[in-house]
Design goal:
The complex is a heterodimer of chains A (510) and B (165).
Chain A: H1 2-11, H2 14-32, H3 38-45, H4 54-79, H5 88-99, H6 103-136, H7 141-158, H8 163-177, E1 180-181, E2 188-189, H9 203-227, H10 249-253, H11 256-271, H12 277-290, H13 303-327, H14 333-344, H15 351-356, H16 358-389, H17 394-413, H18 416-434, H19 439-462, H20 467-472, H21 475-500, E3 506-508
Antiparallel strand pairs in A: 1-2
Helix pairs in contact in A: 1-16, 2-4, 2-16, 3-4, 3-9, 3-14, 4-5, 4-6, 4-13, 4-14, 4-16, 5-6, 5-13, 6-11, 6-13, 6-16, 7-8, 7-19, 7-21, 8-19, 9-17, 9-18, 11-12, 11-13, 12-13, 14-19, 17-18
Chain B: H1 5-27, H2 41-67, E1 72-75, H3 83-106, H4 108-122, H5 128-149
Helix pairs in contact in B: 1-2, 3-4, 4-5
Classes of the chains: A mainly alpha (510), B mainly alpha (165).
């Protein structure tokens, strides 16, 4: 109880509140601009939190995450261009509503559904994470090894188009994390005599390179293509965000079932690593349509069609904190970056943190709740302003992002080597994106590899040369091992089925 | 048709990871042999997975091509790496590389202004006046934020008294 009060007191101080406000504002802005995402904002802005106290830094980043999730819906509704991938389903009904002069209503529904979905997911997080962390405290090296292996397989199989390419990306992430000192013997590995590499490859330059600078490359490619007359310069006209009737509370209340259903879907999906907010949004949209009395109106501009995906994709945020806080396992890029920043601030997410720093955990829960209300306030007041922001020309936003990437990495590391690392990983990130090698799987492999290595090697040592015999004596590890095998077979089977169907894309030689 | 961009990439990965696997013992000290739990274990396992899966992808693609009728062309969902892709990668890599190389000698403000200006031209900005104005304002605001917001010190202008940094 004391920890709860201390956590609430710490989280309601001026610093964390200001940090959440700034984070939400930046998050909505980044989410609203097509091509920019909350994950990119967290990667770019994480270095500026290094000087802050841990809770304020976490508040800022959570604000970005929450704001970014709603922000994507602004451009989806006003421009029919989703600001972030998870807002794609919102555009199906949001944009037709805008075209029919109900933009304000659509935006308000998106905002309210987002906030309600996020609150419900945070309540679930609060209820589930305590008991789950107590259970997770029983985990030894064998259990951790197979839990992480399960996460790797799940993420690799579900974040890309192919399991083998996802596993290659994940293994590459693990390989990159092996650069530096061996955690058990402190002997150098793959450092090639470069002193700066003894500490290992730094997470932030890699993440900023793959998320930020790689996007600038994509924008430059688009510009070259336009110049050669091969591409389509998307000519979009934003509709005023303040036009049309407002959403009444009774109107919102009449859609509570959709919001509740989608929030539960989003929370459950968020808690599973690798599935992500986009699928949650589509499932939220699908379930809203399935249970609607007027499914034929979906796609023409219904409030349910906006509420369903928005509640689901926002609920993913709270859900994704369950594996993050209780097991230290990130389920998506954003939480992978959050875990990196937590570690910089001396917070090591996992079951032990609930015992060692309960005030901090309650502080994080409080911040998650407060961020929803700040998101609501800023969303209501600032939608008109953000509607102008989404119209900023691509060349302005991407050149500023390019500079912010370079400056952010240099200021946070004071090392030119980090800049080179970032540039190299930007090229790798660009190629991974082009060839469908999931960079989510790469980043999660990179973030979890050090912990995985220690548990895996400890497991082999404890097993005394008989890992299979030892595994049978550890039921939780055995369950995760079997689940991993089932996941591999299931995903590979599904892919094989898809491949064996006739390919309509196969072209005939002329 | 076997030589699609995707298959060339897979073959490249097989060759590179195979070479890295061969070279790995020279770059990792794996003298602790306790039940195989030494420092080489995970890097070697990661490289073996990369090499094996990429080889499997290549093999599968080769079998698919063999089974197809000779008139079948390349799949239209193959990755298109044209001149625009190469130009996009080169533009950003060269500009970012020049920024990194020149930062300590030229100073932050000139290097950053040139970077933003060149990126704006590269990503579609055509009006020199507007581009120049935006780049100067952006760099100034970012510098002020770093200097007075974060308290970080950067070398702002060229340092002619000191050699290359």
């Amino acid at each position: 109880m004391e920890a709860l009060i201390a956590g609430i007191q710490n989280a309601t101080g001026l610093g964390p509140i200001l940090a959440i406000t700034a984070g939400v504002s930046i998050g909505i802005f980044m989410g609203a601009v097509p091509g920019l995402t909350a994950a990119m904002a967290i990667a770019l802005l994480a270095p500026i939190t290094f000087g802050l106290d841990p809770l304020t830094a976490v508040a800022f980043l959570i604000g970005i995450y929450k704001g970014g999730t709603f922000g994507g819906s602004i451009s989806a509704i006003l421009l029919n261009v989703p600001g972030s991938p998870e807002a794609t389903a919102t555009a199906f009904d949001g944009y037709p509503m805008s075209k029919s002069g109900r933009a304000k209503q659509a935006l308000q529904m998106a905002l309210l559904a987002s906030v309600c979905g996020a609150i419900l997911a945070d309540l679930m997080l609060f209820a589930v994470s305590g008991p789950f962390s107590k259970f997770a405290l029983k985990f030894g090296p064998a259990e951790l090894t197979f839990v992480v292996l399960f996460a790797f397989t799940f993420v690799a199989g579900l974040t890309g188009k192919s399991l083998s390419r996802g596993l290659i990306a994940c293994a590459f992430g693990v390989l990159c994390a092996m650069v530096g000192l061996d955690p058990m013997t402190a002997s150098p590995r793959m450092t090639f005599g470069v002193v700066e590499l003894l500490d290992g490859l730094p997470l932030l330059p890699i993440a900023i390179g793959m998320l930020g600078l790689a996007e600038v490359m994509v924008a430059a490619e688009r510009a070259f293509r336009r110049r050669n007359g091969g591409g389509s310069g998307q000519d979009v006209t934003a509709i005023s965000a303040t036009s049309g009737p407002a959403l009444s509370l009774s109107e919102f209340g009449s859609h509570w079932k959709t919001v509740l259903r989608s929030s539960l879907i989003g929370s459950a999906i968020g808690a599973l690593p690798g599935i992500g907010a986009s699928l949650a949004a589509f499932m939220g949209y699908g379930s809203a349509k399935k249970y609607s009395k007027t499914p034929e109106q979906f796609g023409t501009g219904t409030l349910d069609g906006v509420a369903g995906p928005e509640a689901a994709n926002s609920a993913v945020v709270g859900g994704s904190f369950v594996p993050l806080l209780t097991l230290g396992i990130p389920g998506n890029v954003t939480t992978a970056l959050l875990i990196g920043t937590f570690l910089v601030h001396g917070i090591e997410p996992g079951p032990h943190v609930f015992k060692t720093e309960p005030a901090l955990i309650y502080g994080i829960f409080t911040i998650l709740f407060i961020a929803n209300f700040i998101n609501l306030a800023i969303g209501l007041l600032g939608s008109g302003l953000y509607a102008h922001v989404v119209k900023a020309p691509e060349y302005v936003s991407y050149s500023i992002i390019g500079l912010t990437c370079m400056t952010g990495v240099f200021v946070s590391t004071n090392s030119i080597i980090s800049l080179y690392v970032m540039i190299i990983f930007a090229v790798i990130g660009y190629l991974m994106k082009k060839f469908d090698y999931s960079f989510v799987a790469f980043l999660i492999g990179f973030v979890l590899a050090p912990e995985f290595e220690v548990s895996f090697r400890s497991f082999l040592l404890v097993a005394q040369g008989d890992p299979l015999g030892f595994l049978i004596t550890r039921p939780i590890a055995l369950v995760f091992c079997i689940m991993t095998l089932i996941a591999v077979v299931r995903i590979a089977w599904a892919e094989n089925q898809k491949r064996s169907q006739p390919n309509p894309n196969m072209t005939k030689k002329v | 048709m076997f030589l699609t961009s995707r298959n060339i990439m897979s073959v490249g990965i097989v060759v590179l990871s195979g070479f890295a696997l061969w070279q790995l013992p020279d770059h990792v000290r794996g003298d602790n042999q306790l039940f195989g739990a030494n420092g080489t274990l995970l890097p070697a396992l990661a490289l073996a997975i990369i090499c094996g899966l990429a080889a499997l992808d290549t093999l599968r693609a080769a079998i698919t091509v063999r089974r197809q009728s000779p008139s079948a062309g390349a799949p239209s969902d193959d990755v298109q790496l044209g001149k625009a892709s190469v130009a996009g990668i080169l533009l950003v890599t060269i500009l970012a590389g020049l920024f990194a190389v020149s930062l300590r000698t030229v100073g932050y403000i000139p290097a950053a202004t040139v970077l933003v200006l060149a990126l704006m031209f590269g990503t579609g900005g055509r009006n020199l006046g507007v581009n120049l104005l935006i780049s100067i304002v952006t760099v100034t605001l970012l510098y002020l934020g770093i200097r007075f917001g974060l308290g970080a010190h950067l070398q702002v202008w060229p340092d002619f008294t000191n050699g290359a940094g």
